[in-house]
Amino acid sequence: MTAGATGIAFAGLAWTALVVVLTWLASLARHDVSLVDRVWPVCIVGAGLVYFALLPGHTPRGLCMAVLGAAWAVRLCLYITWRNWGHGEDRRYQAIRARNQPGFAFKSLYLVFALQAVLAWIVSAPFLPGMAAVQPLGWLDIAGIALGFFGLFFEAVGDAQMGRFKADSANEGKVMDRGLWRYTRHPNYFGEACVWWGLWLIAVAGAGFGGAWTIVSPILMTWLLLRVSGVRMLEADIGERRPAYRDYIARTNAFVPGPVRGNHRKPT
């Protein structure tokens, strides 16, 4: 990476740091660390847009990456804000708060916010070589763009289906196993992973080996979705809280969509 590219990369890190510090200050006033979830997509794609603004010249590839990234970020930011509005701090962050008392207000700056700033910066990596590349668009770009927008559509449909399910009081206490949720327990996470694998393909299409190293981005995002803040954390105790979910786990893939297992569907 050249000195100029390194400077642009660190401008992206400065962006993520600024966003999380401001959000940390807001969290102190609101007593709600889960505000960080609302700005997570803003941190990632904001860094990408910083690269786009600072790089000389704007290529069709860079514009495609900016549009895909911005569409993903706006949708997810608005959805998380709408979903969490008026519900206070997420129980996952309440548990982190309880484990790190006393002094969690300050500790949260590095335990939650600084960590997410660095992770967001790493996830933004494909934007820089992809947007800097001057190669004409090719078949791998088309594949990456198609995968990215498929993932965006898949997660948006999954979130909309879950939103409608929860809005119906008749579904209180039931397990959502309809629509996309019939084939994967987390269509939103699967779709999100597709977005980042698509963006990585676009970076590789433009920059070749110079973009291949950014595979750390989709790997990190997929790992977070599966093993850290996503599937594992959400399902850690759900079987005890909602026994019907255990049957749902037995018949439905956790991540990649697949056929329903078993010969019948047990009541939920």
What is the average per-residue confidence, as pLDDT, rounded to a whole number? 91
Q: What is the tally of beta strands?
A: 0
| Percent range of helical residues | over 70%
**Tally of individual domains:** 1
What distance separates the N and C termini? 54 Å
Element pattern in H and E:
HHHHHHHHHHHHH
Roughly what fraction of the amino acids lie in strands?
Answer: under 5%
| Contiguous runs where pLDDT drops below 50 for at least 5 residues | 264-268
The biggest sheet, with number of strands, parallel, antiparallel or mixed sense and barrel status, is:
none
Q: Measured on Cα atoms, how large is the radius of gyration?
A: 20 Å
Q: Which class of secondary structure composition applies to the elements? A: mainly alpha
Descriptive account of the structure:
The chain has 268 residues and is mainly α. It has one domain (3-251). Helices cover 71% and strands 0% of the residues. It contains 13 helices and no strands. Helix 2 (35-54) runs antiparallel to helix 3, helix 2 crosses helix 5 and helix 3 packs parallel to helix 7 (139-167). The longest helix is centred in the middle third of the chain and has 29 residues, at 139-167. It is globular. The termini are far apart.
Summarize the entry for a quick read.
The protein has 268 residues and is mainly α.
Keywords:
mainly alpha; 268 residues
Set down the secondary structure blueprint.
Blueprint: H1 3-30, H2 35-54, H3 60-84, H4 91-99, H5 104-123, H6 127-132, H7 139-167, H8 187-207, H9 209-212, H10 216-228, H11 231-234, H12 238-241, H13 244-251
Helix pairs in contact: 1-2, 1-5, 2-3, 2-5, 3-7, 3-8, 7-8, 8-10
